[in-house]
Amino acid sequence: MNKCLTILFTSLLLLQANHASAIEIKGAISCSYWFSGRSKPEQRALNTTWLVGYLSAIGWKSNDIILNQTEIQSIELWTDEYCRIHPESYIANGARDLSKELLKKGVPAKY
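RE: above sequence
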């Protein structure tokens, strides 16, 4: 799983390096923006990368490997469901709720 995340992140960085015009500064990602980007590969990749990065940071701060047993597709589907239930919300709010669920079953990190 860690290899998959590393490859995904590196690929996205290389994609952005080749298309500097595609880079944009992102603020809070609304649920409507999340849904609008699901059919656009670049936007979907950027939104998902932000979400996985957020969850990774929460896990690191908590000293848990919360993404070790979690597929990226599952994270996207969980966020889809969150946004269906809370259409006026932001994915950061959903990510916070998801991180709480993942922390309940997290694996302590070994350094």
